# Entry
Amino acid sequence: MEQDLYAVIGHPISHSKSPRIHSLFAEQTGQPVEYTAIQAPLDGFADTVNTFFERGGKGLNVTVPFKEQAWTLVEERTPAAEVAGAVNTLYLDGQQRLCGDNTDGPGLVRDLTVNHGIDLYQARILILGAGGAVRGILAPLITQQPLRIVIANRTPGKAENLAHLIAGVIPVRGCGFGEVTEPFDLIVNGTSASLHGDLPPLAPSVLGPKTVSYDMMYGPELTPFNQWASDHGASRVIDGLGMLVEQAAEAFALWRGIRPDTAPVIAALRDRVG
Ligand code: ATR
# Structure
């Protein structure tokens, strides 16, 4: 059977787990999907995307550092992509126009609510960081109607700007790490601090006996942030592997019209990571 071609595009790209995830989805659903990884030159993102689709490619996932460029490049954006300011999934519509979606936020929400059974309705949520990763998750979190969201960041002004941009339906406040002391139901670490071997300097009082700590990073061991949260009394710590698989499943569903079962894929990756 002829395979439809998909790929993840980034720089660097060799570490990407997307080809394995999508191959497992294709195998499970019996869809004729071939999924590869493309490293685009840092100054050649648009050309690489255009060439891929001109040659008959059906869809792309976009990763670091091209998600913002993808947002600029597309002709149409889904509402989720529009607010996120970043695009992680590309496809052509019926008129062959390049369209962009962002499945990161829906992936996080689904991992929290479906895979981990966490009810976000009326929850007090603390989000750490104010970069691209955080911008992508805010609108989907708000759709769950939490009580309030506080965004804390090393550079407080960036958190304040993001809070202004998104506030409306529910209260959203932006501030520095030192300004939060009260306990939250959910803390999401969306900073890249652990890549630099750092921890956001947070007061342990943000952790109560029912606090769930979610680190968007993942690895074979507890992430440094989740280790800190666990040491200071968090009730549960969760890493971002489920979010990675769920954002991929959202993209696969958008492209193929069929949503794969993510549990066995998360388990297979956990074996590999762990
Ligand atoms: P991404 O697209 O992955 O979010 P980014 O836009 O560079 O990447 O944002 C990285 C986030 O991690 C920012 O919120 C950054 O804080 P600043 O806005 O102050 O730069 C945060 N961050 C990076 N290194 C950090 C560290 N060592 N400690 C705390 N926060 C850090």
User: Anything to note?
Assistant: The chain has ten helices and twelve strands.
